[in-house]
Amino acid sequence: MEHSTIRLTMAQALVRWLAAQMTEIDGQRVPLFAGVFGIFGHGNVTCLSEALEAVQDRLPTWRGQNEQSMALAAVGFAKAKRRRQIMVATSSIGPGALNMVTAAGTAHANRLPVLLIAGDTFTNRLPDPVLQQVEHYGNPSITVNDAFKAVTRYWDRISHPAQILQSLPQAVGAMLDPADCGPAFIALPQDTQELAFDYPAEFFEERLWTIPRPRPDRKSVADAAALLKTAKTPLIISGGGVRYSGAEEAVAKFAAERGIPVVETIAGKGGLTHYHPVHAGPIGIIGSTSANALAAEADVILAIGTRLQDFTTGSWTAFSRDARFISLNAARFDALKHRALAVVGDALEGVAELDAALGGWKAPAGHLPHAQALFKDWDALLDDHQTPTNAPVPTYAQVVNVVNKAAGENDTLISAAGGLPGEVAKGWRVKTPNSFDLEFGFSCMGYEIAAGWGCAMAQSGPGALGGTPIVMLGDGTYMMMNSDIYSTVLSGHKMIVIVCDNGGYAVISRLQQFKGVPGFNNLLKDCRITDKTNPLHVDFAKHAESMGAAARRCESLADLEAALDWAKGNDRTTVISIVTDAYAWVPGDADWDVGVPEVSDRETVNKARESQVEIRSKQRVGI
User: Given this model, what pLDDT does residue 321 score?
Assistant: First the structure.
C-alpha cells in the first residue's frame, strides 16, 4: 500500500506540523500552539519566515522588540494558560538566540512550557565563519545555541530534514509532561531549513494532545495516609503544581473536611482566595506571620506540587527538626527532597486517592480554628501597614493596597523581581483563583511587562479569566526592560503598569545593609554619579507616552486611586508612576541563608556573620 507524501522544505514542514497540533481546554478544542513571537534576522528570515507568513491565519506571528522579552511574554502566556497552551519564540543566530537564554532559564525554573526556535550556522560549514558565529577552535560543532542545553528540558539541532519527524513530537511530549515540563529548544541550521524532503502526509494530520495525569503508587498513598493520621498539627503547603493540575478546589475541599490549614508558596499563591476558610497565608522568606508560625508548629507537612525552594522553606529553618514531610508531586526529583515520604503523581489524582485512604480521620478539632485566628491577626497586621499615613512618601504596602482595591475580580496581578514580590506575596488579597502571577522561581528582572503582554493575549478563549493584567514593578526593573509597552500598543493588548519609583534597587540595598555592608551601588544615591544629593530621576510617564501608552505621574495615594480609575476606562496600555518609600517593608519573613564574609574589618559584617551562623544552626540538613 502506497503512502502519500508532501514535498516541503524543512521549515515549511515544521510550521505546518505546529499548526496541526491541538489540545482541549474546558472541553473545547483549541490550537496547542497559540502563536509565535518572532524577531527575524539572518538564520530565520529567509526560510522560517516564509513558512510562517503562509500560515499566519492559523498560527499568528507577533513581532517583539527584544528576543528576551518576547520569550518572556511566551512564559507569561503559558503561566496564564496554566500550561495548557504554548507559544513559540523564534530568533536569528548569535546574539538574537542568546538573548532568549534568560527567558529559557525563567521557564525552566518555573516548570513552564515554551518552544524556542533559533537559527543556526551551516551544517556543511562551507561559508564559515558566518556573521554572528562564535568559533570554538577545538570543537567546530559548538555554536551559541549549545548554551540552551543548561536551561531547557528538551534540546535538538536539526541537521537533516527528516529529523523533525521524531524531534517535534518529543519536544511536545516533554513540554506537556507534568514531571518534565519546561522549555524545549530546537536549533535550525540555515542550510537545513532550505532543504526539501518528501514528508509522510500523515505527519501533518491534526493531532489532539492531552496532558497526562499519572496516578501515584498505591503503597505510597497508604504510607502517606498512615503518617498523616499520626499528625496533631498537620499543615498543607500548596504549590504551583496544584494550580497547573487544576486541583485548587480539590485541595481546598480536602483541607476543609480534614481540618488542615493551607499555606501557599509563591507559585501556589492564587490557588485559594485570600479569605477562604482554610487559607492561612503565604509561607517562607516573603511569607506571613501566620503561615510561618504554623510551619514551626507542624508535625506532619503535606507538600503538594512544590519544589520546596529556599524562599518557601526559609532555607530549611522554618520547620521543626522532628517534622515529617509527605511530598505529593508529579516529578520524582521534587518528591524525594529532604527525605520526604514521596507520593509521585498528579496533584488532583493524588489528593483524591489520599482522601479515600484516610477514611474518617480528621485533624484535632482546635487546629484549624487556631490557624484561622493566626491568619486574622496577620490580616490585621496587613491593615496596619497598608493604612495611609501622613508620611510624605507612600510605602509599597500602601500602594499595593490601593491597586488591590481597584483591581477587578478577574484582573491578574503580575510581578517578579525587587521589593515588590515580598509586598504583593504578603499584601495582595486574591479575589479570584488564578489571578496572581509572581515569578520568583527565577526572580527575573524584566519578566513583568513582557509577561503582561503574554497574559493579555491569554485573556480570551476557554479557561481565560477575561480581565486586564496589572503589572507592578520597580523603577530599576522598568529601566531594564520596558519595550513591550510598545508591543502591547502595537498589538492592541491592553495592560495597566504601575511603576513604584524608590530610587534604585531598594530591596537588595536592604539586604546589603542588613548583612553589614554600607549602601553601595544599589540606590541611585549610593552609586558613582555626578550629583549624589539630587540624582536624576526618569519621568516614567513621559517615557511610556513616547511608546504610545497613556500615562500619568502620581504624587499621592489619592492621585493613584484616581489614575487607576482613569486607566480602567482607557482603550490601551496605561502606565502610572508613583514615588515610593525605599525603606519601609511589611514584616513576617522567615530566615534566609546567604553568604556573609567569614572575616571582615567591619564590625557590622562580623555581627551579621554571627547571625548567619545562628541561622544555619537551625537548618534541617539531610533529614
Answer: 92
CA angle 247, 184, 245 (to 5 degrees): 5
Region of 203 on the Ramachandran plot (φ > 0 left; ψ -120 to 50 alpha; else beta) = alpha
Pairing of strands 154-157, 86-91: unpaired
Predicted local confidence at residue 319, as pLDDT: 96
SS3 at position 60: coil
Delineate the domains of the chain, giving CATH numbers in brackets. 5-209 (3.40.50.970), 218-376 (3.40.50.1220), 387-579 (3.40.50.970)
**CA nearest 313: which of 336, 290, 286?**
286
CA-CA distances (angstroms) from residue 277 to 125, 261, 357, 362, 454?
64, 8, 24, 16, 32
Residue 44 phi, psi dihedral angles, 5° rounding: -145, -5
Cell, residue 528: 558613582
CB 500 within 8 A of CB 420: yes
Longest dimension (CA), the chain: 84
In degrees, to the nearest 5, what angle opens at C-alpha 241 toward C-alphas 29 and 343? 115
How many CA atoms lie within 13 Å of 374's alpha carbon, on the beta-carbon side? 26
Give per-10-residue mean pLDDT for the chain (623 aa): 89 98 96 98 96 97 97 98 98 97 98 98 95 94 97 98 98 97 98 97 97 97 98 98 98 98 98 98 97 98 97 95 97 94 98 98 98 98 95 96 98 96 97 97 97 97 94 96 97 98 93 94 92 85 98 97 98 97 92 94 95 92 64
pLDDT for position 623: 53
Q: Are 293 and 374 in contact (CB under 8 A)?
A: yes
C-alpha distances out from residue 136 to 128, 129, 140, 143, Å: 12, 11, 5, 8
Rounded Cα distance, 267 and 276, in Å: 18
Helix axes 101-109, 67-80, angle to 10 degrees: 20
* Nearest residue to 591 via CA among 532, 511, 522: 511
Residue (of 84, 89, 97, 113) closest to 36 by Cα position: 89
- In this structure, the number of other CB atoms found within 10 A of the CB of residue 392 comes to 9
Angle at 323 between CA 318 and CA 328, to 5 degrees: 90
Chain Cα centroid distance, residue 335: 20
Q: Tell me how many degrees the CA angle 593-290-412 measures, rounded to the nearest 5.
A: 85
Alpha-carbon distance of 294 to 281, in angstroms, equals 10
Note whether 620 and 319 are within 8 A (CB): yes
- Rounded Cα distance between 237 and 241, Å, is 11
3-state SS record for 385-414: HHCCCCCCCCCHHHHHHHHHHHCCCCCEEE
Contact indicator for 188, 11 with CB cutoff of 8 Å: yes
- Alpha-carbon distances of 413 from 95, 330, 398, 403, 459, rounded to whole Å: 31, 27, 16, 9, 13
Taking the C-alpha atoms of residue 77 and residue 115, their distance in angstroms, rounded to an integer, is 12
Determine the residue type at 509: S
Q: Which position has the grid cell 534597587?
A: 505
In this predicted structure, what is the pLDDT of residue 80? 97
Q: Backbone dihedral region of 262: left (phi > 0), alpha (psi from -120 to 50 degrees) or beta?
A: beta
Omega prior to 587 cis, within 30 of 0:
no
Q: Are 9 and 17 in contact (CB under 8 A)?
A: no
